[in-house]
Specification:
- The complex is a heterodimer.
- Chain A is an all-alpha fold.
- Chain A has 2 domains: about 10-155, Orthogonal Bundle (Cytochrome Bc1 Complex, Chain D, domain 2); about 160-295, Orthogonal Bundle (Cytochrome Bc1 Complex, Chain D, domain 2), CATH 1.10.760.10.
- Chain A contains 12 helices and 2 strands, in the order ααααααααβαβααα.
- Chain B has helices at about 95-100, 175-180, 195-205, and strands at about 5-15, 20, 25, 35-50, 55, 60-65, 75-80, 85-90, 125-130, 140-145, 155-160, 170-175, 190, 210.
- Chain B has one domain (about 5-210).
- Chain B is mostly beta strands.
- Chain B is built from 3 helices and 14 strands.
- The chains are: A mainly alpha, B mainly beta.
Amino acid sequence: MPNGWPAPAYNFTNNPLTEEGILLGQTLFYDPILSRDSTISCASCHLQATGFAHVDHDLSHGIDNRIGTRNAASIMNLAWSKTFFWDGSINHLDVLPLAPIEHKDEMDLPFSEAVKKIRRDNKYRPLYANAFGTIGISGERTLKALSQYMLTLVSANAKYDAVMAKKDSFTIVEQKGYLLFKQHCSSCHTEPLFTNGNFENNGLPIDTTLNDMGRMRVSTLETDRLKFKVPTLRNIQFTYPYMHDGRFATLTEVLKHYNTGIYNSNTLSDKLKTPMQLSDNQRVEIVAFLKTLTDTEFLLNKKYGFIGK
Amino acid sequence: MHAQDSLRIRFQLFLGNEPIEWGKKYITSNADTFAINSCKAYFSKFTFTYQNNKIVQIPNSYYLVDFSEPNTTEISLPISTNKAVKAVSFTIGIDSATNTAGLLSGALSPMLGMYWSWQSGYINWKIEGTSPSAKTRKNAFQFHIGGYLPPNLAVITVTFEPQKGINNHVVRVQLDELFNQISLKETNTIMIPGKPAMVLANLFQNCFHYKP
């Protein structure tokens, strides 16, 4: 657990992490066996080198080249998250994999069928036995192992973290960017996780080809219209494109949106009602700071990488 | 457990005066012809009020009843001996706390077709069938009713006063009370939490009748 971080939301006593459990979860994460025609794995849309996000696609695509309706989110520091997905439709990490596995545009396989496929693959029998102490492949074990692996994906070793630990220092530009960030951004992108975990309307005009209402779809509350979960900004340099529908390809565009592109509507976040009025230089400074959230050790660590055939 | 130490409730699915036959054609009072192919429901939080007004909730009492499997339709609950039960109550569906507890097993396993994968949460009950009034693919109607977030918390409570001196009780689920209140042309596919699900949840509550 990184120094100074809040207590995790995940209850580890119900699913204690073990080396064998993590190995099983990692094997499953990289195995396309979880999709109907064995073409798509979790890693298809969640690539380590880009913060486990689906880089360079506005909307993520899955099985049979089908295109979904959102940009696949990054995967990191999930133990601190109380809800998952852009609209928070998933309420616990242990049930999260059911969604992409069963979704017709993603992996398109009933979860019970996925478990049957795993049972037919000889390599898994010892992996499950080692992970859980007894022979047996079940849905519950599959989900727990996937959680175990995902919970190890902790990114807390960026330049920002080194600076906070007084082991490094910001450049002048980064330092200016940090002060601006604290003034304009951190009420939602709260340190040290760089998200407050809430749902906010950040002033994006609706894309009428998608009509994505965000959190309102889950809560049915009019007050949640166009609200989406505040994403973490850790490793943001590499998780492009940005926003729930991937509409911005660069951080420069993102900053421009917050500065002059805010679309006002009833549910717009209070924090965005006053224009930021950032100069060109100030926007560059904020982007320079955001790049200090890049955790190269996390992105390139072989420990998290592909294992399989 | 001795037989006298338990109270047993058998749920029976009825239309009119007869037990439901799967696939048989029935007619609603709105003149919709329909047939039912499956019905499953979660019953939970069984609570007894004893004659001395002591209220006891049976811990971990979560049951999935599949009406097509008769061995699941009787629920046996432990009772204190020598005490008369004045009232029995239970909920249809799964409470909010259990819905957010993460991965559970047994009757609450997410692999029993009673859990939504795309949006976390249990399906409290489901009824599926066909009706020519439903202009859907293969004329199917599908009611998957759930929801744990207010204002669409679709959990409902049923209470009955059991006849004294016996331990075997019957609760009839009279589906007329639901199907006579809807038009299958208008209402045939409800599979997400929300207002329409709440309407059906309340209609389903009216279906439960204790049969002395």
